[in-house]
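Give me the fold.
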Amino acid sequence: METEPQIKKTYVETGKVKLVFRHLLQLGAGSIRTAEASECAGDQSSFWPMHDMLYARQDEVYAAADLDATLTQFAQDLSLDTAAFAACMQSHKYLAAVQADYQAAQRAGVRFRPSFDINGARLTGALPFSAFQQQIDAALARS
């Protein structure tokens, strides 16, 4: 099992910790549009499914001649209301929030993906579950 699903199952789904996702716009305009797409999907309670699809199908994202059409297809694949999704995307409803996430990450010194801040400690990179488990359990013991 991958690390993120283990963290979610062990800590998030049990209510022990809260996972907060912040957008890092390190790959130009495409990063902005994919971040907006995940937020627009969130309007239909599908932030995480869109997030997961964007990562799973990133080759399609990077190869897209028309990124917005590709993102709308992803919304359709998730059985979202594509008209509402497209309206959200066209209005740039979440652009300011996405940009604010990125600015906050820059101010906090986040330079790599993935980055996790756990009670003052920062873990970066694709680390094994045990590294997160150790940090999270220590933080929970202190609280």
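Strands lie at 115-118, 121-124.
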